[in-house]
Structures are given as structure tokens and as C-alpha cells.
Amino acid sequence: MLIGRTWTPGEVLTSSLRVFREEGLKTLWFKTIGEIFYRRMLLLECVLDDLPAPITSRLPIDLHRLTSADIDAYVQFRPQPAKSELRRRLEAGDRCFWAGYGDRMVGAAWVSSGNGWIEYLQGHIPLKPGEGYLYEAYTHPDFRGYGIGPALSGFAYRALREDGFHRILIAVNLENRPARRTFCRNGERVIAKRGFVKIGPWRHDFTQAPPGGPCPEERTPPSQYWDGIAGEAAGRISYMDAFLGRLKRRAYVGLLDRWATPRPAGAVLKTDLFEEAKGPDAFLHELEKGGDTVVGMDLSARMAAGARRREDRCRAVFVAADVRHLPFRSQSFGLIVSPSTLDHFPRSSDFGRSLRELARVLKQEGVLILTLDNHFNVFDPLLRLVGRLGWVPYYLGRSYSFRHMIAELEAAGFAVEDTTTLLQHPRLLGVGITGLVNRLGFRPLRGLVHRLFLEAERLEQTPLRSLTGCFVAARAEIPKKEALGPP
């Protein structure tokens, strides 16, 4: 059942070709599923207490509030909505601000209070006293690209502040990049992603609340994003079922026993502290068995601090650092363990950059143990879909095949000595299954599920491992450079 109006086949084809030609395949895909069952928007806020300097348009425009005397001009500018609707809005207390160029109206934006309505999501957004919802911001196509939108919204914010408003909310379609750029100039920031999934009469609304930061066009600093993730579940004991946590820890400890025994001489680095900060799958203390210095590192200072509090039995040094720009001297470590760290980048080029940094700080003949999300796991497409829907509590980057992982390692100067897959349970489905049996509280059923998951680990020794493993794993070394002798 379509969410929007009924489309004729000719309209579908014409509209699809236009969107594909003007905005690309990705936008066409999301607009298509938006008409069928799934929609989402970014929710932005602008706090009016601290606005930047006014933005000036590159055209000499005049900025005004809309009054009933301006309704005819507005209808010439935008035929919809009808005059009666415009009058109703003004009488209800909505405000409209518009930009004029010469004798033409070229831009306008409306602001409501009390109870905003997001047309695209077909839902209300409740507003507190002093809050407003900006909607139907529009610039005439002939006048786009001149900075009229940011100048108009800045004017509106100042006028609203004088009226007693302190916060404005805006909903922006993720595919509308010009609008996203417009609303990144006056101090707006992303506070949530809202949307819904609808199949027939059933509808599920969701809100994914990313940490505060600038608009995507300004690139929220990654450390700020992961700081938000570190604090997002304050009060939770962990992000993972205790049994699955023990299973994951056992898998990593087994990998260390096989690939790092005896331990290479030198300090040890673990590139991610998510497990130690938030889960029952922590294994940093297992890296201390060699007796050398152990460094636990995370991009998020908040994550590193959380790991330090929870792992007080560890003698490890906890630091906040970016794996793409490591603050360590060259050849500092004899062993590096990177547990699903390098598969959370938005840009694929950062994967190779991080591997080159790891190669720099690893001693010759030192060992890197690397794991990444498995691209060929049969449930990986489901994981990506759920991530798109906002039901995964953190950003998912790419998943990798053995071939891609090995090629990137070799390009960074590593020699790959061995590969395998890790954790043979059905990952996302496994989380759902264990959660269900825990809720049912039937101990024989829970015991059966646990035994099945343990038995599934045997698949690592079969050719099916590339389809069942949650992670691909590699043991890699920096080859010792042979000294050049006399000719």
C-alpha cells in the first residue's frame, strides 16, 4: 500500500527518470521506498540565545513578516496553499517571513507554535512554550544559490527571539542536500533522525537520537559522535546479552592463544574500548599475560574513561586517540589487536590510512590481529537494513570480504599469515533469539539455545565459515627487512 497519493505508471516513470537524472540512484532509491513503506527525516534545532552574525544574501533582498495584505503576493509566489488556508494560519498564530527582490516575492518560511505538523511523516511534533517549528521554507527556483534561504531564516530567528521564542525545530529530508546546507548556517544542529515503517495498517514510528553536533555538511567530529554513543546508554549494564558476551570473549581469547602465543616482545595495543566500557565481552585484561605494557585506546575520551572505571583490575594505560593519526612513536608495539574498529568509517579511504598507521607503530615481525564485519555473512544484509532504519545503537561502516581485507593489509605493508572467521552464530538474529528466551524465562529453552550457539562455533573449521562468521579475521606481520650485503 502506498503511503502517498496514487501514482499512474506514466507519472512513476517520468518522476523516476527525473530524480535519477538530477539527483542520482541513491536519492531515487530512498524516494521510492518513501512512497512504499519507509520514510525518515533529520530533525534540527536552532537555539536563539546565541545566533551568529547575520548572513547577507548575494542579491539585494528585503526581508519582511507576512501580513494579510501580502497574501495575494504570496499566492503569485506559490499557488498552494489556498488563500483561505493562509488566512487560517495567520489567525491561528503561525508566523510567515518572506524575502522580496524588486517587486517579487522570492522566498518564504512559516513557523508554528504549540503543535507542529510534519507533512512528509504525517505526524505531529509537540512543542513546549517558547519553541517553534519552521516549515514550508521555500526559495523560488530562479533565485536559488544566492544565499536567500540562510539570510531569511536568520532574519526569522531574530524576529522570533524578540517575540519570546528560544528554540526552533526544523525537519529536513535527508536527500534534500540544498536544504541541509541552508540550515547549517545560523547555528542549527542535528538532534535526531525521525521516521516510520508502514506496512498496510501497521505503522512503527522511530526516533534515533544522535549526539549533538553540527549538520552533516559540516561533518560532526567523530570523537564527538562516539562520546555521545558512550553516554547514550547511561544506566544500562551492557549493550549485549551476558551469554553472547562470554561467547565473544572466548572467541577472541582463543584467537589470541592461537595467533599470539608466545606473545611477541614489546608493548600491546588494543584499538577499541567499546567492550570494556559497555559490555560483558571485555578482554583487555587478557592482553596483560605477557607482562609488557598494555595500552587500551579509543577515539572517544568518554569511552576510554568508562573503560578505565569498569576495568579497574587492569594495569593498562587508557588513552583517547584516533587510529588514523596515532600519537605513538614508530615501532612502539609488538602486538596490536584491532577488534572490529576499522569498519566504522564513513569513508573507505580511512581504512587504508588506519592500516598504514598501525604498520608504522608495529615492530618488525610484530603481530597484528585484525577483525572486521564479514561482508559474506548471510545475515549481513539484514544488519545493514536494520542499521538504515536506525535500530542499531551506533554507526555501521562497511563490511569486508577476505579478499578485500587481505588486499588492504598488503597495500599497507603487512604480510598476511593466516585468516579465519569469528563467531558463527547468526549475529543480529542471535541477539533477538537470546533476548526472547531470556524474557520467556524458561530455563530448558535457554539452555538449548546456548548449546546450539556453542555447537555452531564448530563451523569455523568448515568451508561454511565464510557464510556463518560474524567477522573476518587476519593475522598479519610486518616482514623483517633483509640487510643488503656487499655485491
As residue ranges, the low-confidence spans are: 211-219, 233-238, 483-487
- Judging by the overall fold, what is the CATH architecture of the largest domain? 3-Layer(aba) Sandwich
Task: Quickly count the domains.
Answer: 3
Strand content: 25-35%
What Rg, in angstroms, do the CA atoms define? Answer: 27 Å
- Summing up helix and strand content along with how strands pair, one would put the structural category as alpha/beta
Largest sheet: 9 strands, mixed
What spatial form do the alpha-carbon principal axes imply?
elongated
Tell me what you see in this structure.
The protein is an alpha/beta fold. It has 3 domains: 36 residues, no CATH class; 180 residues, Gcn5-related N-acetyltransferase (GNAT) (Aminopeptidase, 3-Layer(aba) Sandwich); 236 residues, Rossmann fold (3-Layer(aba) Sandwich), CATH 3.40.50. The chain has 16 helices and 18 strands. The strands form 3 sheets. Strands 1, 2, 3, 4, 7, 8, 9, 10 and 11 form a 9-stranded mixed β-sheet that branches. Strands 14-13-12-15-16-18-17 form a 7-stranded mixed β-sheet, with helices on both faces. β3 and β4 form a beta hairpin. α1 runs antiparallel to α2 and α7 packs parallel to α10. The longest helix is centred in the middle third of the chain and has 18 residues. The radius of gyration is 27 Å and the shape is elongated.
